[in-house]
Design goal:
By secondary structure, the chain is mainly α. The chain is built from six helices and no strands. It is rod-shaped.
């Protein structure tokens, strides 16, 4: 009996798309892909095992942050110390300039007074010159040359002691301005020196 012609046997059901995919994977993909997939998978696992632990990386970054924060604190402390030192120096310079201003005022009062002797004025001028020369910042502010010009050229006399002198008051403003500028420049210079030393240390 020919089975193919037996009408009592039902034909096979159509193959579903899920069955087709399973058959393709079984018959095509697995035989050809497995020899490549397995080595690739093993290689990926090995490489992953060699990668740095995220916790180690975090600890390393946190240590770098702490180091940078310490540098910032050190730098800020250096700035504060430098500014304090320069400010104290500036205060002393202004005190000295106040003394110079008083001596110039006294000298001009003698110069403008018809009742005071020339010898008294010369003594006051000598005292003024000696005081100026002894200042450690004399060359920075150019005190001595300024005083010499005042003594030579300032012949202005007013009605009273406070109005005497003209050139000397301009010089006083100039010296105070120079002193303030020098203070700021010294702070900047010391910051640059500190920065250079820090870079050399970190190399």
């Amino acid at each position: 009996m020919n089975i193919m012609n037996d009408l009592n046997i039902l034909p096979d059901a159509p193959e579903t798309w899920q069955a087709k995919i399973s058959r393709l994977v079984r018959d095509v993909f697995l035989p050809y892909a497995v020899p490549y997939v397995i080595p690739a998978f093993l290689s990926w696992k090995i490489m992953r095992g060699h990668r740095a632990d995220p916790d180690d990386r975090i600890a390393s970054l946190q240590a770098e942050i702490r180091r940078l924060q310490q540098e910032i604190e050190s730098f800020q402390g250096h700035i504060t110390t430098t500014q304090r030192q320069q400010y104290q120096k500036h205060i002393q310079i202004n005190r000295d300039l106040d003394a110079i201003s008083n001596m110039l005022e006294e000298r001009q009062d003698i110069y403008c007074s018809p009742f005071r002797y020339k010898d008294t004025r010369l003594k006051a001028e000598k005292k003024l010159r000696e005081y100026v020369v002894e200042r450690p910042y004399e060359k920075e502010l150019k005190l001595f040359s300024g005083v010499e010009e005042i003594l030579e050229k300032d012949t202005h006399c007013g009605i009273n002691r406070g109005e005497n002198g003209c050139l000397m008051w301009v010089y006083m403003d100039l010296w105070r301005t120079r002193a303030r500028l020098n203070m700021q420049e010294n702070v900047i210079l010391k910051m640059r020196t500190y920065d250079s030393k820090s870079k050399d240390t970190n190399k």
